[in-house]
Amino acid sequence: QVHVVESGGGSVQAGGSLRLSCEASGRSFGTYAMGWFRQTSGKERDLVTAISWSGGSTYYADSVKGRFTISRDSAKNTVYLQLNSLKPEDTAVYYCAAASSYLSDDAPLRLDDYDYWGQGTHVTVSS
């Protein structure tokens, strides 16, 4: 069993920044690909960014390219999401997820590639 816990959400004005953290339990964290998703009320959960288990491959949704950065620190079992130049449309609940069974060293893109999820952290961006 892998426990995933997000932190770092909050409220910020447009143009501001936040850093989200995601800690995942387990001695095999270094073998997990990780992803950040976001969801707003009544909409599907969408992939924002993902990183391979080695950190050598990343994916960003077009809407966040150049503004968000994913990184990982395997010594701390933690993945980070730096959110810069935030826009009101970035307002959502952000979920971190682990793909513990994903063997390829690339960034998983499908929702069902991920088997462990956090509870989510709220990000609110005001104009």
Question: Overview of this structure, please?
Answer:
With 127 residues, this protein is an all-beta fold. The protein contains no helices and eleven strands. The strands form two sheets. Strands 2, 4, 5, 6, 9, 10 and 11 form a seven-stranded mixed β-sheet that branches.
Query: Main β-sheet: number of strands, strand sense, barrel status?
Result: 7 strands, mixed
* Straight-line distance between termini: 40 Å
Helix and strand sequence: EEEEEEEEEEE
Please state roughly what percent of the residues sit in beta strands, choosing from under 5%, 5-15%, 15-25%, 25-35%, 35-45% or over 45%. over 45%
What does the overall shape look like? globular
Helix content bin: under 10%
Structural class: mainly beta
Low-confidence runs of at least 5 consecutive residues: none
Q: Helical stretch count?
A: 0
Overall average pLDDT? 96
Radius of gyration: 13 Å
Counting DSSP E segments of at least 2 residues, the number of strands comes to: 11
Provide a brief overview of the structure.
With 127 residues, the chain is mainly β. It is built from no helices and eleven strands. Helices cover 0% and strands 46% of the residues.
Topology:
Elements: E1 4-7, E2 10-13, E3 18-24, E4 33-39, E5 46-51, E6 58-60, E7 68-73, E8 78-83, E9 92-99, E10 116-117, E11 121-126
Parallel strand pairs: 2-11
Antiparallel strand pairs: 1-3, 3-8, 4-5, 4-9, 5-6, 7-8, 9-10, 9-11
Give structural attributes.
127 residues; mainly beta; seven-stranded mixed beta sheet; 0% helix; globular
